Amino acid sequence: QVQLQESGGGLVQAGGSLSLSCAASGRKFSNMGWFRQAPGKEREFVGGILWDIQSTDYADSVKGRFTSSNDNAKNTLYLQMNSLKPEDTAIYYCAGRLLSREIALYFRRPSDYDYWGQGTQVTVSS
């Protein structure tokens, strides 16, 4: 059974930091990504990683503040979020793309991913 389990969300003041984790079990992925969804808004891409070479990609809104990394031995994806802003408040989801699909460095659409975690709330107060 494939499972993606996020952890690490919470409440932080603007300018603070949070670290999210996504533990994957049951399957390996070619790419994994982080998305977020704020109330009343569509799910948006935050960052992604090509698993084997650890090549990363970020949305312009988080570039320079967020860093995605992975631990292959633990099959875990991480998102380090620094200099957080109130507009970063959202539910954050991790997602995995099947190895059987086309390989590319970066994927930014929700439809590019096959499995999703349940999400973790990140709230940044002003």
What does this entry show, briefly?
The protein is mainly beta. 0% of the residues lie in helices and 52% in strands. The model has no long low-confidence stretch (mean pLDDT 96).
List the helices and strands and how they pair.
Blueprint: E1 3-7, E2 10-13, E3 18-25, E4 29-37, E5 44-50, E6 55-58, E7 66-71, E8 76-81, E9 90-98, E10 115-116, E11 120-125
Parallel strand pairs: 2-11
Antiparallel strand pairs: 1-3, 3-8, 4-5, 4-9, 5-6, 7-8, 9-10, 9-11
Instruction: Specify the structural class.
Output: mainly beta
Our measurement of the CA-to-CA distance between the termini, rounded to an integer number of angstroms, reads 40 Å
How much of the polypeptide forms β-strand, as a percent range?
Answer: over 45%
- Model regions low in confidence, pLDDT < 50 over at least 5 residues: none
Give the number of DSSP strands. Answer: 11
Number of helices: 0
The H/E string reads EEEEEEEEEEE
Percent helix among the residues?
under 10%
Global Rg: 14 Å
Q: What oligomeric assembly is this protein in?
A: single chain
Major beta-sheet overview: 7 strands, mixed
Give the overall silhouette: globular
Mean pLDDT: 96
